[in-house]
Amino acid sequence: MIYIYSFLFAGLICLIGQLILDNTKLTPGHITSLFVIIGSFLDIFNIYDLIVAHVGGGALVPITSFGHLLIHGGMQGAMENGFIGLAMGMFNFTASGITSAIFFAFIFSLFFKPRD
Amino acid sequence: MYIFLIFTNNIIGENMEKKLYDKLVLEHAPKEKRLENAVIAFLIGGVMGVIGELLVEFYGYYLHISRSDASVFMIITLIFLASLFTALGFFDKWVKFAKCGLIIPITGFAHSMTSAAIEYKREGFVTGLGANMFKLAGTVILYGVVSAYIFGLIRLIIGGI
User: Fold this and answer.
1) Is residue B70 part of a domain?
2) Distance from CA of B22 to the nearest CA of A (A)
3) Residue of A61, B59, B112, B117 with fewest CB within 10 Å of its CB?
């Protein structure tokens, strides 16, 4: 059942993105930024946590989970260290993704040539 | 009077040409298949979600780690695969076909970074690769951090934690 929920949720997010892309003049950059902001907005009152609990991995794949993980790390830091912890813990959960993206992008760019 | 006539003629002529031109552009513009695009994005995005859930359960089962650790492994796996396929050259075609189905998932983030890194490598490692790698991914990180900080402050002020 969790697979069906994953399919529907991730598909729905991509469907909304595609509709925005086709019907407005926004570029993919605008849309991904918009979805990150929506993800962190939904996590103000732990709504996205509820979605992740029910949907599972399907909610972690779209870029909305990036914003959710950012604010999640920030709030966890704030629980430990007060206001300054918000900045200290911001990248706690997303650091692995950003680091690996930078690392792999650099390594692959060393070995491969551009193609058109 | 004569000059005036030429003047008006010119304006009318330009208008006519512009109208004709607009009509021609409309006729020859590639027709966007909005419905087809939306269905493809829905299906591919859904498949990506199922792959994510499968990977989380796979790592949790075989490496005996908690679900949150397994989700970190899943995200790194997807980023690795997207970077590799971009470097090998066929991820661009997939993105062109699936559009938002592959841009909205975390694969789009890795794809934008790797393709920028490979494309700008020829302009030098610092001024080219280093300066341009975050062109698209930078907006995601910027607005993610700014919005998360503001929303985090709001949540701290309103409801405690």
Assistant:
1) yes
2) 19
3) B59
